[in-house]
Amino acid sequence: MNMELITIAEWNDELWKAVEPVYREAFPSGAKPEKILHSMLDRGIAYLHTGMIDEQAASMAVTGVINGKEGWRLIIDYLAVSREVRGQGAGTLLLNKIVEWAQKEHGVQGVIIEAESGTSEEHQERIHFWEKNGFILTPYVHQYIWVPEPYQAMLKPLAPEVTVNDNGESLFKYINAFHKKAYRPPAK
After folding, report:
1. Which phi-psi region, left, alpha or beta, contains residue 71 (left: φ > 0; alpha: ψ -120 to 50)?
2. Residue 165 lies in a domain
3. pLDDT over threshold 80, residue 2
4. Using an 8 Å Cβ cutoff, are 111 and 135 in contact?
5. Which of 19, 68, 134, 170 is at 20 to 30 A from 109, Cα to Cα?
6. CATH assignment at residue 77
7. pLDDT per position as a tens digit, 40-90
8. Mind spelling out the 3-state secondary structure of the chain?
9. Does residue 90 belong to any structural domain of this protein?
10. pLDDT computed for residue 188 by the predictor
């Protein structure tokens, strides 16, 4: 499979129109509204990645780069693959291209995601995807006050010294710092 990665740091209506169906299909509820995503890119705190296959948006991700006391981390806020190419390696290909980009452009040493904590088949499939791509599931279950479902953090170390020294609670410091920036109103 041949995929071109397009990464933007400033909002682009044309690219969003191409990728929005993939985003909405994967996240019919619980997704950030377009205006929040737009604001995140406009304020320079997020990136929109699009995986193009045969000039069609086949996958997408929203990410941010956060510096903490353990160094630079890439936060994957959303990653979605179109139904047409699911199960064909497109998600892994997109993930690998984004990780390579983040290491080259930002020197990240680890990648963090949060996954819904649950026992359903769908939850287990998502966890399996991340684990087969080198992520480590941590046992800490985080309950946000504004969303009903609990989450667990997962880490993909990109350097030997990158580890989780607790039950995963420390990874939510990065995740929460990113969310705090994402939902903060733009400065006037």
Report:
1. left
2. yes
3. yes
4. yes
5. 19
6. 3.40.630.30
7. 999 999 999 999 999 999 999 999 999 887 889 999 999 999 999 999 999
8. CCCEEEEECCCCHHHHHHHHHHHHHHCCCCCCCHHHHHHHHHCCCCEEEEEEECCEEEEEEEEEEEEECCEEEEEEEEEEECHHHCCCCHHHHHHHHHHHHHHHHHCCCEEEEEEECCCCHHHHHHHHHHHHCCCEEEEEEECCCCCCCCEEEEEEECCCCCCCCCCCCCHHHHHHHHHHHHHCCCCC
9. yes
10. 60
Instruction: List the domain range (segments joined by +) for residue 175.
Output: 4-183
Chain centre distance of CA 134: 15
Q: Are 60 and 21 in contact (CB under 8 A)?
A: no
Phi-psi region of 171 (alpha: psi -120 to 50; beta: other; left: phi over 0): alpha
Tokens at 135, concatenated: 């992520």
Query: Is position 188 within any domain?
Result: no
In this structure, how many other beta carbons lie within 10 angstroms of the beta carbon of residue 24? 12
- Amino acid 153 reads A
Number of domains in the chain: 1
Residue 35: which of 56, 65, 60, 13 has the closest Cα?
A: 13
